What does this fold into?
Amino acid sequence: MRHGKSGRKLNRSSSHRLAMFRNMVTSLLDHERIYTTHAKAKELRRRADWMITLGKRGDLHARRQALQVIRDKSVVHKLFTDLAQRYQARSGGYTRTVKVGFRVGDGAPLSLIELMTGETVKKKKRKRKPRKAVEASPPAVDEAVVEEAVEKKKKKSKAAKKVEAEAPAAEEVVEEKAAADEVSEPEPEKVAKTPEKKKDKTKKGEEGDEK
It folds into this structure.
């Protein structure tokens, strides 16, 4: 697994790759723009930004670190004087890459990598105009309509009060009628039920007495 190994190999050995990028960084800082393949341009951008950061730092140790990468002392002098002042107000993003097409021989994608201008363009903030407070006027309503609505509400409230007052009186009347009906109803007469056989015996006894 390729853990902790950043960067592109570009099908080269480490020594070949290091020498190639040292030449490319020197050419970029000297001419400020070069054409190369897109993969190399993206890898070169990291190293060029690191060199400009060293130039902005400006101390002796930073100069010695830059001399380990850049092959020309005049380019190092330009880095620590001109470029350091140019990018003093910029905190990163010193280069940019632009795709320009494909190479004729093998069709590799080409890019232009160049140094950015030192001017930082600040976006102007648009000042929003304060909204005028418009007093919302209430909609016009006819007085006659309002009066009719008030009268309807009053009538409804009166009718509801009447119904509430009449309800307990009606309940009392219903209870009184129910009590009167219970009193007026006669109790059912109790009729002694005698079996038919006993009636026949009594009839026969009466006929014997008459004889």
